[in-house]
Design brief:
Layout lengths: L3 H11 L19 E2 L6 H6 L10 H4 E5 L5 E5 L3 H7 L5 H7 L4 H6 L4 H15 L4 E2 H11 L5 E4 L4 E4 L1 H10 L2 E3 L7 E4 L15 H9 L4 H8 L3 H6 L5 E6 L2 E6 L3 H5 L6 E4 L11 H4 L3 H7 L7 E5 L2 E11 L2 E8 L5 H18 L5 E4 L2 E2 L3 E2 L1
């Protein structure tokens, strides 16, 4: 029988967290984009999968886009036209779901949601002729759009465009995010042309089934921010049903043997928004509710120590002057081998940040998942 432990080992392996070296071209998680949130975001996610990120030409090799869920994601620049097609809503109902409360005034005004996104994109494309910070872009866009596209922002005491249409329209307008900018800077994508179709490898439903399977219709829909009905309509014909701990789930037929024989090994410090932690069936990864709340708090998420497919603890970076420390809260006893493996990964993180590791602080493990 397939249990959650095997699913986690499969995901660790298929997401390539058990490989030591790899190239950008063969990095599987780029099919869904690599979320770039926090200081150890997209590039760290590539580094822990064996990509030599320091050897990359960041501007030429990669592109940053607001895509699924309106979150910033990193993709191969060569795929940008196909990605723009792959992450676009499938229908008005899908678009309405993805833009949340922004859909209500548009519907009341009789404006189709996809048409509204195209309207926003058209204005954005006209406004951004050169790199422009998000705040300026938003102000100019708000001045150009009619009332159904706008909302009153109480914290700013000002009228703004709704956030999700703003983000989802950016790629439709051929705009990318300038990497390592905060607040975000938008700029035109050189030679951008949105493709009409996209290859199977970039299909978000297929990619999620491959990378985060076995899974359910609901989980895929939550990841994409699409209605379940739309996800079912785009379900791959080669998806098969498997049973995980007595529950029916789905995965691609070609991956079934890899699931049944999954034996991922290795230790990694994955970032808070790494795909390994982004699967919507969180109980598959972490059964205990107290631990789940610690791993996925509302604010200030930690990273996870992943050992042989299981979360073995939490980690947080601490930098003070020239001192860089990685603090670890173990979820099980750290023997000498695991402590050594975590130290190696902490040193990798320090090198990635361009500093030296001052210390690895592993809290003392005591029973009942408490630390002191």
């Amino acid at each position: 029988m397939i249990d959650r432990n095997r699913v986690n080992r499969y995901r660790m392996h298929v997401q390539q967290l058990d490989r030591e070296r790899g190239s950008l071209a063969d990095t599987a998680v780029l099919a869904l984009g690599v979320q770039d949130t926090g200081p150890d975001g997209a590039l760290w996610a590539l580094a822990v999968r064996g990509v030599d990120v320091k050897a990359l030409d960041i501007e030429a090799d990669l592109v940053w886009l607001w895509s699924l869920r309106g979150a910033p994601h990193c993709y191969p620049r060569s795929d940008v036209g196909a990605v723009a097609a792959a992450v676009a809503p499938w229908s008005d109902a899908d678009a309405a779901k993805r833009i949340f409360d922004a859909a209500r005034p548009l519907k009341a005004a009789g404006i189709p949601i996809l048409e509204a996104l195209d309207t926003v994109a058209s204005h954005m494309g006209e406004i951004v002729a050169e790199p422009m910070v998000k705040g300026e872009m938003s102000s100019r866009l708000s001045a150009a759009l009619p009332e159904p596209f706008l909302r009153f922002c109480r914290p700013c005491n000002a009228i703004h465009t709704y956030e999700q249409p703003f983000r989802l329209a950016a790629v439709r307008a051929g705009l990318e995010l300038e990497p390592k900018t905060s607040p975000p800077v938008l700029r035109p994508i050189p030679g951008f042309e949105r493709e009409e179709k996209y290859p199977d490898r970039l299909d978000p439903v297929r990619a999620y089934l491959h990378l985060c399977g076995p899974t359910t219709f609901k989980a895929v829909a939550e990841y994409i921010d699409a209605p379940v009905k739309e996800v079912k309509a785009h379900w791959p014909e080669d998806a098969v049903e498997v049973e995980v701990d007595g529950e029916p789930r789905w995965m691609l037929a070609a991956d079934e043997e890899a699931l049944r024989s999954a034996e991922a090994s290795g230790t990694r410090l994955v970032g808070p928004y790494d795909l390994f932690l982004q699967a919507r069936d969180r109980a598959t990864l972490v059964e205990d509710e107290t631990k789940a709340k610690a791993l996925w708090p509302v604010l200030g998420r930690p990273g996870a120590v992943v050992a042989d497919g299981e979360v073995a603890g939490l980690w947080r970076p601490r930098k003070s002057g020239k001192r860089f420390t990685v603090a670890v809260e173990p979820w099980r006893e750290f023997d000498a081998a695991l402590r050594k493996a975590v130290t190696v990964e902490a040193e990798r993180l320090a090198a990635f940040r361009g500093v030296e590791l001052t210390s690895l602080e592993v809290a003392l493990w005591v029973s009942a998942c408490r630390w002191r």
